[in-house]
Structures are given as C-alpha cells and as structure tokens.
Write a structure and sequence with these properties.
- Pfam families: CheW.
- The chain has five helices and eleven strands, in the order αβββββααββββββαα.
- With 179 residues, the chain is α+β, with helices and mostly antiparallel strands.
- A hairpin with a 2-residue loop joins strand 4 and strand 5.
- It is globular.
- The termini are far apart.
C-alpha cells in the first residue's frame, strides 16, 4: 500500500513539474521514460497527459505492438507498446503487480491530431538541455527513422534516446496498425 501511495505522490510531483516546465521558456525539455529496458526522451511540447495503465480493449487483426484502444478522459485513444513498436522487447502485461503499477500511458499532445497513447514501463522524471550532453558513439552514425533524434548522455553516464513525437505521429509504419 505504501508503494502505491509513493507512486501516486511521484506522479503528482511529475504532473506539477510537467506543468511548470511547459510554462517556462527552455531551449529543450523532455519527459524521460523507460520502455523495454531502454531510456527515451519525449519532448514536453509534444507529450500530453500521463495516465496509469489499467487495461485496453484489443482490436483484432492489428500489429502486436498495437495493444488496442482505451478510454482516456472520455476520448478513445489507440494504445501503442513503445518498446514493441521500436522492435525491442514487448511489454509484459502479465507481470507482477508492483511492476504493472509502474506502467503508464503517455498521450500524444492533442495538437498532433492523433488520439494515441504510448505505453511505457516507467516514468523517469524530467530532463532539460543543461542536464545532458551529446553521446558520441557509433550508434549516432546508423541510419534511423525520422522520429529518432539524437542520443544524449546524463551525468551518471546513462544514454537517452530522443524521440520526436510529431514525426512519429506522421510515420507510415506507426500509422499502419493492421498486422
């Protein structure tokens, strides 16, 4: 029970910080998330509301990474397993309660004109440009989709991959949910 309360407090603090960060003028700021054991940065201007994951209704004949649809504040949203879509390990929805309690849906900003939410395994807070430096590694030279931005390293040496949600919302593979 204490874990759930701590998680709710963390989510409340994150929501407050998200709102404060949106009102501040920063060069770049991101919502940090983890999916399939990887770290990702989602631009705050392109991310929408965050919801706890409870369930969604599956849709037949769709790709395995398209988990179904969920009612989020009265709006029907497609639910995409971020790790599964990126070709990484799909999320395990039959996991322990403590791990399932960390699952979150990050809705895309309504300005992107797509009712979609990304399922991530964990929220990791907010990051801004002065907390990160470019990661100089071989992966930066690889060909990658338009929605994949730069790789950045935090002071602890962890590498984060930036994802451009506006470009993701226009990506043909992302829009093609039929399996």
């Amino acid at each position: 029970m204490a874990n759930k309360e701590a998680l709710r407090e963390l989510q409340s603090r994150l929501a407050e910080r998200l709102q404060a960060a949106r009102t501040e003028a920063r060069t770049a700021s991101w919502l940090a998330v983890e999916a399939a054991g990887q770290r990702f940065l989602l631009p705050l201007q392109e991310a929408g509301e965050i919801f706890p994951f409870s369930s969604c209704v599956s849709v037949p004949h769709t790709s395995p990474w398209f988990l179904g649809v969920a009612n989020l504040r009265g709006g029907l949203h497609g639910v995409v397993d971020l790790g599964g879509f990126l070709g990484l390990k799909p999320v395990n929805l039959n996991t322990t309660d403590s791990l399932r309690d960390q699952l979150r849906l990050v809705a895309l900003n309504p300005s992107l004109d797509i009712n979609c939410a990304l399922l991530v395994e964990r929220l990791a807070g907010l990051r801004n440009r002065d907390q990160l430096a470019p990661a100089d590694d071989a992966a930066a030279a690889e060909a990658r989709p338009d929605f994949v931005g730069q790789r950045l390293r935090d002071p602890q040496g962890r590498v984060w991959q930036e994802l451009n949600l506006a470009a993701l919302a226009r990506d043909e593979a992302f829009l093609r949910i039929v399996g």
